Amino acid sequence: MPYSSGTTGLPKGVELTHSNIVSNITQLSPEEINYLQETTKEHQDVIPVILPIFHIYGLVITTILTLLRGCKNVYIPKFEPKQFIDILVNYKPNVLFVAPPLVLFMTNQDAVKPEYLSPVRDILSGAAPLGAADEQRFLAKAKKNITIGQGYGMTEASPVIALTNKKKRCPPGSTGIPVPNTEFKIVDISNPNGPSLGPNQTGELLVRGPQIMRGYHNRPEETENTITDGWLRTGDIAFYDDDKNLTITDRLKELIKVKGFQVPPAELEEIIRKHPDVLDVGVIGIPHKLFGEVPRAFVTPKPGAQIKEQKLQEFVKDKVASYKELKGGVQIMDRIPKNASGKILRRELKDLYKKIEDKS
Questions:
Q1: What are the distances in angstroms from CA 335 to CA 42, 51, 276, 331, 354?
Q2: CA–CA separation, 166 vs 160, rounded Å?
Q3: The Cα angle at residue 247 between residues 321 and 243, in degrees rounded to 5
Q4: Neighbouring residues of 79: CB distance < 8 A, sequence distance ≥ 6
Q5: Helix residue ranges per DSSP H, 45-187
Q6: Residues with Cβ < 8 Å from 359, sequence gap 6 or more?
Q7: Is 190 strand, coil or helix?
Q8: Under 8 Å between Cβ of 316 and 268
């Protein structure tokens, strides 16, 4: 019984059966979505286990799946930059199972030399969307042809729902195709019980398959609201293309509603990370008397850099529609609060903003 991430509310106990976990491991067998090489007398994949094992990604993917394949796992009790870099140098890992913050770390840190990444064959990023621009910046740093795949999943789905197809180029930023025996559909956000939407139409993602949880522990009402006729309401905003590649754009509960328009925080975060002085960023919606909500950015500068609020607002303004501008302002922080899997804890950012407002 792992617990949900708790990025927008309190975590919930997720009841996963033996059948759920075994089904999901089996669903990862096809060659086109298998990022691990079988162990032989001549070769053994080396995997740094960075994500905590109490997290579903760390438990099922970087522990159960890698042990099943006979990989050599290098466990890290707690992520520390120097220790991670030492592992790159000394153990020469072949596959990195990561969350987007670690991709950004490897891209932005001068201490991570391109030659340290030379043994890396594949990277699989999950737990949160990795933007196409962030993907390209990492490849430019690595200076080699590393396959970067993305996976999409949820604790409620044991966790994998979709993976990038290694044999067929997926659009940058896509989380790939659904794993075998998994159905998905996109429905209108305002009418989840209505008809399914077609390709390239954005809405809420619903999923059905043998990996879907039994329910939330001691929460029958929330279980009923989340699962209908076997369909799991993911709470994620997504679309799929003509080849059935899924792209997750944001969380339904995290959308910022400006004058009736819906603004995905992840879209603004990807733009802000392109600023040369920005190390990390988290965006939330804050109340506004006229517009309902407006975006506010919490920003961590790169070491030695200084960021001026107006300059960053102008940087974003040149790249977005007017309703997506940072009219809620910019706040400089030492670090962006995240959970163990690397997801931004937006509820903590909202609490921080509320405390600031209460004092003013």
A1: 43, 19, 17, 11, 18
A2: 16
A3: 120
A4: 50, 102
A5: 56, 66-68, 81-91, 100-108, 132-142
A6: none
A7: coil
A8: yes
SS3 336: coil
Task: Tell me the C-alpha distance between 182 and 163, whole Å.
Answer: 12
Q: Taken in order 137, 138, 142, 147, is the CA torsion positive or negative?
A: negative
With contact defined as beta carbons under 8 Å apart, do 161 and 153 qualify? yes
Two structure tokens written together for 279? 């190390």
Q: Select from 180, 119, 127 the least CA-distant residue to 152.
A: 127
DSSP E strands in the chain: the ranges are 14-15, 46-49, 72-75, 95-98, 122-125, 147-153, 160-163, 177-178, 183-188, 191-196, 203-208, 215-216, 227-228, 231-240, 246-251, 256-258, 261-263, 278-288, 292-301, 330-332
> pLDDT digit string (tens) for 57-80?
989 999 999 999 999 999 988 889
**Two tokens, residue 257:** 């509603």
Residue 281, token pair as written in the block: 């960023």
Direct distance between the N- and C-terminal alpha carbons of the chain, in angstroms, rounded to an integer: 43
pTM for the model stands at 0.78
User: pLDDT tens across 134-168, in order?
Assistant: 888 999 999 999 999 999 999 999 999 999 998 88
> Please, what are the domains in the chain?
14-180 (3.40.50.980), 255-355 (3.30.300.30)
* 150 residue type, one letter: Q
230 vs 209: CA distance, rounded Å: 8
Q: Contact, 94 vs 119, CB < 8 A?
A: yes
28-40 confidence digits (pLDDT tens):
999 999 999 989 9
Parallel/antiparallel/unpaired status of strands 177-178 and 160-163: antiparallel
Q: Which residue has the tokens 């903003």?
A: 353
* DSSP summary character for residue 40: -
